[in-house]
Structures are given as C-alpha cells and as structure tokens.
Amino acid sequence: MRSSGLVLFACAGLLLSGGAILGGSTAFTLLRMSYYFWTTDLGVELGSIVLFIAGAFLCLPSCWLATLAPYHSKSVSILATLMLLVTTSILLLSTGMSAITGLSKAVREPGALNASMLRAMAHESVDPAVRTAFSAMQIELRCCGVQSNADWYQHRRVLPPSCCGRLLNGKNGEQCTSPMHAGGCLRPALTEIRMFINSVCVLTSAIIIVMASTLFTAAYTLVSNALERKESRALKIAQPLRIACLHPTIPTPDMQQSIANVPIPPQI
C-alpha cells in the first residue's frame, strides 16, 4: 500500500505538469493556427486538436484523485473514479493521435494544401474571412502569396497590405508594391505544421505512458485494499476456540492424613 501510494504520487506530479503543458500549448497553437488555416481544407483536422485539449484537462482531476486515493477512508470509490478518468483521457488522446494523421498527410503531400490555399486566394476579394486569414498568415509567417508573391497578381492588380507588414493601406492611400518577404507561405506553413505534430505526438505519448502506469497502480491498489478488508473481516468473525481441560487431582500426604482423621459416623 505504501509503495503504490508513492507511485501514484509520482504519477500525479507528472500528470499535472504534462497535462498543463499539453493543454496550454495545444490550445494556444489551435487559436493561432486555426486563424489562418481555417479557410483551407485543414479545418476538420484542426478541429480534432480539441481531443488533445480535453484529454489533457482530464489530467488535472486525475492528479488530484491520485494523491488523495491511497490515504482516504473512501479509497475504493476514489480509485474507481480515478480509473474511469484515466481510461477516458487515454481514449481521447489516442483518438486525437489517430485524427492528427490528416495533418501529417498534408506535410507528406503538400500539393493538396497548395491547391487549397490557391482556391482560397481566389475568393480573397469577396470573402472577408479569407482576407483576414491570409492577412494574419502573411504577417505571422512573414511571407507573401502561396509559392511567391506573384500568385496575387492572378487575382488582383496590387499586393495586399499584409505583404508589406500592415493590415491596411497607408494613410495617404499608398498601396503595397514591394513586399517585405518575397517567399510564399506554403513552406513556412508546412514547417509550422510539422513542428506542431512532432511536439504534440511526443508529449502525448509520454502522457499516455504515465496514465497507463497510473491505471495499473490504481487497479493494483484497489485489489489489494479489497483483499486486506476481506482478511480483516474474516479475522473479526472467527472467534478463538477455548477448550477446558480437567486434570485429576493427586492427593498429597497432608490431604491423606486429613482424610484419615475424619470420624466415620456409626452405622445403625
């Protein structure tokens, strides 16, 4: 019991730190990346990142229960709840790992993402969402166009203001004619996605290993507590058997003399 409590305490610390890092970094990356990738075909794949956030946030109550379970009077119910939370979190993270393969496919086959960004660029003049997404992406990634800044000239006469590092045209109405960064956004976007996939997969795999250890230790502690309680109840019910043994008394010389001195009543 003591050793399992120490293991649960160590797993609780790892779950707290790992869950906070995974949940916070994934939520921040989702808000930042989805802002300029949502208009492409990666919207569904980016939506699957929510599974990582949900699984990471389940680490926080699991951490609390793991530190409370070994020494609480209601440890059985707490351990059962801990096992349920850990199992749910493992399923969420595993599903997220399976769903993120769509993003990795975009890295392996950049032609699909290239075509998707070019299709979105064609609607930039009529769709404010596309215009805002490209502005954010070009300012954030320091790029212009998809392959190069020449892609914009297929749909408009001048470059958008974001290619010059600003959201709007200048005060005097000057337009962007010379981009700050001539390179396209496809390559830095793929680099961004690749770094995100690698970091999330490594951290998620580590958390799943810690959760598997927590689940095994909680199950072991639950079974051990059940066996100990069963043995203690059996000891309380079984009463010790007491046997009285009567030994014959051997008369001593004093007892024989006192018996001989006893007068015998006369017989009538």
TrEMBL record:
Keywords: Membrane, Transmembrane, Transmembrane helix. The keyword Nucleotide-binding does not apply. InterPro entries: Tetraspanin/Peripherin, Tetraspanin_EC2_sf. Pfam families: Tetraspanin (PF00335). CDD domains: tetraspanin_LEL (cd03127). It comes from the Eukaryota. GO terms for cellular component: membrane. This is Tetraspanin.
